[in-house]
Design brief:
By secondary structure, the chain is α/β, with parallel strands linked by helices. The chain has 15 helices and 10 strands. It is globular.
C-alpha cells in the first residue's frame, strides 16, 4: 500500500484561542514532544516516498520552539510547503524575533481575522486582549514588509459592525500602507463552513435579506479577493434553494485520494483533513493501531462519516435533516457536509 504523498499534521500544542467560528473545533491543548513528532513520521514513512510532516493543524507557531520545530519538520519531510500566510498574532506581540523570522522565510502577507470592534472580536476569539494584539501585530508586520490581509466572518450578531471594520481599514490607512511596501491590500468576508464551532452559530447564520447590510466597499474588496462577480457567488445559495436541488440528487461520494492529509490530535487519534476532526471521522489511534491499520481504514472508508458519505445518497440525508424553508446562505459543499454531520450524529 503506497500513496503518492502523505501529509501528517500533529496537534502538538493546540491554540491560545477558543474561536467561535473555528471549523477545527476547540479541543484541549496538548504538550507533545519532538519524539512524538518523530514517531508520527516513522509510522507513515513506509507508505509513501513523499512524506510531509507538520507540528500543527491549529495555531501556527504557538510553541516557544517554533524555529526548532520548523527545522525538524523540514528534516523529516521529503517536501516542505512554504510557511502559510497564517500566523500567530499571539506570538507576534510576545516574541520580537517572530515576525523577522517569518520575513526571512519569504512570508509576504499575513491573514488576520477581525469580527468587529474590540468587544466583538474578543468575544468571537474567546480571549480578552485579542483585538489589541491584532492591531499591534499589524504595525509589526509593516515594519518587516509583510502586508496584513483582513478576514471577517459575518453573522446576524456582528453584521452591523461591518461599517466599523471599513472605518478601521481607512483609519489604519491599510490600502496605502500596503501599496508603499509593494503589496495590494486584501480584505474578504464570508460566513465560513457550518462545521466545528461554527455549526453552533446556525441560529444566527446570515440569510439572503442580510446582503443589503454589507457596505459596498467591503463587497468590492471581497469580490476582488475571490475573483467573483456577485456577492452571492461568495456567500452561496439559500438553504431552501440547496434543499430543492439536493432532494433530487441521489449521488454518493468517495473522498479517498492518493495524496491524503491527516490530522492527528494530542491523543494520537487520526482523522482525514476533509472536515472537522470528530468521532465520526476518526480512523483509529496511531499509538495503539499503527499507520497501516489507519491507512487501510481510510482507503476502505471505515470511519462512520466516510462510510455514510460513500453509501447514503445525499437526498436521503437532506430530506431527514435539511430545512426546506430556511433562507440561510451556504456554499453547496459546506451545506452537504453540515447535513452529513447531522446525519452521523443521529445514527
Amino acid at each position: 500500500m503506497k500513496f503518492e504523498k502523505i501529509t501528517a499534521c500533529l496537534d502538538m500544542y493546540g491554540c491560545p484561542n477558543r474561536c467561535k467560528h473555528c471549523w477545527l473545533g476547540t479541543t484541549p491543548n496538548g504538550n507533545l514532544s519532538i519524539d512524538d513528532l518523530k514517531f508520527v513520521a516513522e509510522q507513515f514513512r513506509p507508505f509513501t516516498d513523499n512524506l510531509e510532516v507538520s507540528d500543527r493543524y491549529r495555531e501556527e507557531d504557538y510553541s516557544y520552539n517554533y524555529k526548532e520545530l520548523w527545522r525538524i519538520t523540514t528534516e523529516l519531510s521529503d517536501t516542505k510547503t512554504p510557511h502559510f500566510e497564517l500566523i500567530s498574532y499571539w506570538r507576534a506581540v510576545r516574541d520580537d524575533e517572530y515576525v523577522p523570522w517569518l520575513s526571512s522565510l519569504g512570508v509576504k502577507a499575513a491573514q488576520l481575522t477581525i469580527f468587529g470592534d474590540e468587544a466583538t472580536t474578543d468575544y468571537f476569539v474567546g480571549r480578552k486582549g485579542a483585538f489589541q494584539e491584532i492591531l499591534r501585530t499589524i504595525e509589526i508586520l509593516f515594519q518587516y514588509g509583510i502586508a496584513p490581509r483582513i478576514q471577517t466572518f459575518i453573522y446576524k450578531t456582528n453584521i452591523a459592525q461591518l461599517p466599523y471594520i471599513q472605518n478601521l481599514i481607512e483609519t489604519l490607512n491599510l490600502e496605502k500602507r500596503c501599496a508603499d511596501i509593494g503589496r495590494e491590500f486584501e480584505f474578504f468576508l464570508h460566513q465560513g463552513s457550518c462545521s466545528g464551532e461554527n455549526e453552533k452559530l446556525y441560529d444566527v447564520w446570515i440569510t439572503s435579506d442580510d446582503m443589503d447590510k454589507i457596505p459596498h466597499k467591503l463587497i468590492d474588496l471581497t469580490l476582488k479577493h475571490f475573483g467573483k462577480s456577485h456577492i452571492r457567488d461568495v456567500l452561496g445559495d439559500t438553504e431552501k434553494e440547496l434543499y430543492n436541488q439536493l432532494v433530487l440528487d441521489s449521488s454518493t461520494e468517495n473522498i479517498v485520494t492518493n495524496k491524503p492529509v491527516f490530522y492527528i490530535d494530542k491523543d494520537f487519534n487520526v482523522y482525514p483533513n476533509y472536515e472537522t476532526p470528530s468521532s465520526f471521522w476518526c480512523l483509529g489511534n496511531l499509538k495503539t493501531q499503527g499507520a497501516e491499520k489507519i491507512l487501510r481504514n481510510y482507503v476502505n472508508n471505515k470511519s462512520i462519516a466516510q462510510n455514510v458519505k460513500l453509501t447514503v445518497p445525499i437526498n436521503k440525508m437532506v430530506i431527514k435533516h435539511g430545512n426546506p424553508e430556511s433562507m440561510r446562505l451556504f456554499g453547496k459543499r459546506d451545506y452537504k457536509n453540515y447535513i452529513l454531520h447531522k446525519y452521523c450524529r443521529a445514527l
